[in-house]
Amino acid sequence: MGYRELIRDKVFIVALAVFLFIVLFSIIHLRYFVKTNPGRWYQVPQGLPPSLQYPFGTTLTGQNLFDVIPAALLNSLTIGFVTASVSILITIVLASTTALIRRGISIILTFIDIMSSLPPLPALITLVFAWRDIITLPMIGLILSIFGWAWPSRALVSLLISLKERTFIYTSYLTGAPKYTIVLKDFIPYTLRYLLVNFVNLVLWAIGMETTVAMFGAMKMEVPTIGTTLYWALRYQSFLLGLWWWYTIPTIFLVIVVVTLYIIGIKIDEHIFYGGVA
Amino acid sequence: MTSQDFVLRAVNLDGGYVIGSSEKELRFVHAVRNVSLNLNYNEILGIAGESGCGKSTLAKILYGAVDPPLVLRRGSIYLHTSEGRIVDITKLDKEDLAKRIWWREISYIPQNSMNVLNPMKRIRDTIIETFKFHGIEISKDEVTKYVRDLFDFVGLPTDVLNAYPHQLSGGMRQRVVITLAMMLNPRIIIADEPTTAVDVVTQLNILTFLREYQNSKKSSIVIISHDMGVHAYMDTAIAIMYAGSIVEYGKSEEVFQEPLHPYTKMLMSSLIVRGDKGLKRGIPGSPPDLRNPPSGCKFHPRCPFAMDICRKEEPPIIEISKNRFVTCWLYAKR
Amino acid sequence: MNNTDTLLHINNVTKLFGYGLLGLRKFRALNNVSLTMPIEPEILVIVGETGSGKSTLLKIILRMLVPDYGTVLYKGKNIFKMKSSEVRWYRQEVQAVFQDPFETFNPLRPVVDYLNDTLKYLLKVRNASERKTLIDQTLRFVGLSLEKVDGKRSNEFSGGELQRISIARALLSRPKLLLADEPVSMLDASLRVDILNILKDVKENLKTSIIYVTHDILTAYYVGDRIAVLYRGDLVELGPITKVYNEPLHPYTQLLLSSVLEPSLDIRKKVKPLKRSTIELKEFLLQGCKFAMRCPYATKKCYETPPPEIKINGRAVRCWLYAT
């Protein structure tokens, strides 16, 4: 069951197809059709509404949105995936430590609790703002992961702690199997699905965070992301000037990417989590 | 099965669970097969059987709590109400059942009943609400007066009224549920494994209480249990279930002393009693999977007396003597 | 102490558990429990209700919990001061069967994996075909075979079959001590006896001692040689099972035995109503005898001072009634 059911689910297939189409289109478009850095200003006439030549219109900073949006999406996704990968890695290391050790669990738990209750936004704005001259895109992902790991770790630790008390783990100990075998055979199968779902959630969280942080101007402002694009739209008062395409179209694409990723996440959760034996 | 003094009579009940996630995969778990039963005035009827034999499903159906995935395909349940009318509770709608029948005529103590109490409410409020639902207004102080005797009977201090369920032990919660079930003086109590989760000392308390209560009110109890010790202690009459059917029925003295059906015989001889360390034998094999039961008599794969006909045809219900029934080809006159 | 006449020597073991909001206040889940098992095979039954500390004791013997006070010696060796090679030896010698057969095996893994792992890691049997032969042999001892078990997961077996497999897995290393934690309480009556018969067989034919932990007095009687009665962390009575059953000394044992519902019609006459019981933390915190609150013979002394262990011809009982 599980995986086979998943690939038969029409909603999942549609969401995955839309998501992949946007990503692939962006990559191909940027690679073969965009000759200059889409982040550069004053390349095209300013403030034109969508037309045949500029399907998504142009900005007051003289950028072609049809070029900017793919780049922005890819950059936002990069940040998202870096954050998710690093956070999940931290989660796995931390949670397995907690699962294997006997003493000191409460110290780690308290630390995780503190980290997951810290408000990330002010700290992130300060950090990114302070370092914005030297940071690169993946680094923004790293900075976001400072806060990204705490919440999934908390859940995973409690999952592992309850798993640790399951009788079959005791049986495994009685077979004399070394600890890494027990982790591999008993813990990983139960946590894999959980990690997969959390990975998707973290990508979503990071994209949202990036957008929020960028809206406060605390981002590498010359690099197009969904956040910076919206920031500039705001700065140039596109709302008042009626340049609706500048903020609407990036937002639509943000929503599409987020929603498809979300659907992919819950469908994985639905079929592999509950379709299996767990 | 006929009797004049019945309070509850089930005729040809047939039901089970419809399971499966999509239309194509729908499967039927045939948990209750053509069951007829009589619960008489002033008696304790035991329903015994192994896990998965359908006894809990039968209890739910008898109570009228037929909710999907459980479906009742056939059969009627006649209730002799306290006003002297006879109603078929399978024909009543949920609201009627809840307002007029449940708690007043029939109470049901579900399995693991310790977990049915609302965790957000004090016991006192749960009780007041139950009264209110049946149109009886009662004040906070009156509750204490009302339940004092009942609580004393089951061995609960009245402080329990002010406690939340999580503050009580499993055994105490179970006793609270039992008191709730008796509060409106129902004529019938259906108790599904009322003592599985409590220790032996508490078990004996609860059972003794149920028995004394039944005796003083002249009410009737259906007690469902896998534990033959419980049946030996409680039952006036006993029905043995196997794979959804009642395979044997009789006065409990008769069934315990002279079991007829091969299953009952083997079950009785596998039971351990004190003072006998001699080697016992269990019943070989496992109970059948109700999704895919064997043909003919459901017990034939484990039965040492199985004949050809047992594999092919379901055995008829045979009346051995008055109120003594067995469902087995060995007793059929051919 | 290096006494090789005893298989297991539990010496004044106390285990504290925290309770309350921060878990800072402690109660004794096990209170000064001492027990000795001889080297000759026997089935020792540990009887107690929920919260009596019987599972805690089992976990301590399995080295899965460390006691706060006291020692556990196995063949003269302190099991909590073992080198890793000794731990492996101890795992071979002491194995366990758990209560819930459906929880014993990971539902995502084939059941036979566990038997294979036991041979591979615990006994270092490298040869795969040799492992197969050993597994088949052991499964046949419990009435199954490799053919019936191979490749299947736990949801494809009945509870009775799983419990047999669980026993077979525990027997693979030819242990000298088998811990059985309520092995039949989840099984149907018609299947129980057969599992109990296997346990008897293990003692008779494999010369393995068994600690059978249960709350079920009747199955205890059927398999047991000796019985230890636990109440709220106290070992209140210990002795040969027939003696204890015929003439229980401790008032709690008396109450327990008189509450048993035997599947025979005689019990209707035999059993009489008794004092009501409540499981309360209060009882754990009593200074003296934990049973005092429910005991019909309780005196002031019982509430204040814990009763000493009193030996009466081969039996031990903790009760002031028998103090001279």
From TrEMBL, chain A:
Protein's name in the database: ABC transporter permease subunit
CDD domains for this protein: TM_PBP2 (cd06261)
Topology with respect to the bilayer: Multi-pass membrane protein
TM regions (residue ranges): 12-34, 72-95, 107-131, 137-161, 195-219, 239-264
Subcellular location: Cell membrane; Membrane
Organism superkingdom: Archaea
A Pfam match: BPD_transp_1
Keywords: Membrane, Transmembrane, Transmembrane helix, Transport
UniProt family annotation: Belongs to the binding-protein-dependent transport system permease family.
GO CC annotation terms, alphabetical: plasma membrane
Taxonomic lineage of the native organism: Archaea, Thermoproteota, Thermoprotei, Desulfurococcales, Desulfurococcaceae
PROSITE patterns per the UniProt record, alphabetical: ABC_TM1 (PS50928)
Residue ranges annotated for the ABC transmembrane type-1 domain, each copy included: 73-265
TrEMBL record, chain B:
Top-level lineage group: Archaea
UniProt keyword list: ATP-binding, Nucleotide-binding, Transport
Pfam families, per the entry: ABC_tran (PF00005), oligo_HPY (PF08352)
Signal peptide (residue range): none
Species of provenance: Ignisphaera cupida
InterPro entries noted in UniProt: AAA+_ATPase, ABC_transporter-like_ATP-bd, Oligopep_ABC_C, P-loop_NTPase
Domain ABC transporter, first and last residues per copy: 8-268
Designated name of the protein: ABC transporter ATP-binding protein
Listed GO MF terms: ATP binding
Gene3D superfamilies the record matches: P-loop containing nucleotide triphosphate hydrolases
SMART domains to which the protein is assigned, alphabetical: AAA
Record CDD domains: ABC_NikE_OppD_transporters
